[in-house]
Design a protein that fits this description.
The protein is an alpha+beta fold. The protein has four helices and eleven strands, in the order αβββαββββαββββα. It has a single domain, classed as Pathogenesis-related Protein p14a (3-Layer(aba) Sandwich), CATH 3.40.33. The strands form two sheets. The protein has an eight-stranded antiparallel β-sheet, with helices on both faces. A three-stranded antiparallel β-sheet has the order 1-2-3, with no helix packed on it.
Length: about 200
Amino acid sequence: MKRGIGAVITIITLLMLPACGRAAANEKLVTPPASAPGSSASSGAPSGSPSSAVAEFTVDGTGPYQIGDKLTDLQTDPGLTNVITNGKACPNNTTAQGTGAWKDVYLSFHSDGTLYLALNRSPQIPTPSGAWLGTSLAQLKTIYAKVQTELLTAGAAKAFLVITLSGGGILFQLNPQGQVVSMAAADAYYLKSSFQTGAAFC
């Protein structure tokens, strides 16, 4: 009797061994593989992240420096450099420069501290339509063919004015070769009258 019971136990044990083997094999198959170096799981931020966005210069200004902003607010965040009040050219106004990526953007504030003009002299900041420092007059005419524009002269100086429906404008000042050397954003009529009379942008 004992011999018979032992035989039954042996048979059951033999039948169970393959099942345990199959379970172990299946567990290995469903274990997720480790991420390989350089894979998407271990890579950094995508190239389209906000930190890689290109700054643009518009009729409203650029980046954190927007027409209508207050001097005191911009001094706090994001900051200003070379702040000069009551300068020789515009004794009642304050001028300053941006910081970081906007260090070549020059800003003018009225006596009440309101930003009314932004001047872009950075080769790294284009307009949304694709005009850069160095862009030729012929290219400007092509880029802005569908909006209101004017070619201005003041003696030997020339400028190309782009006027928006809101009344804002960008004045592209040109060198003798007809290439953009700076861009000014402000009220379009103000930009035109100031350029043509040769007055400082005060």
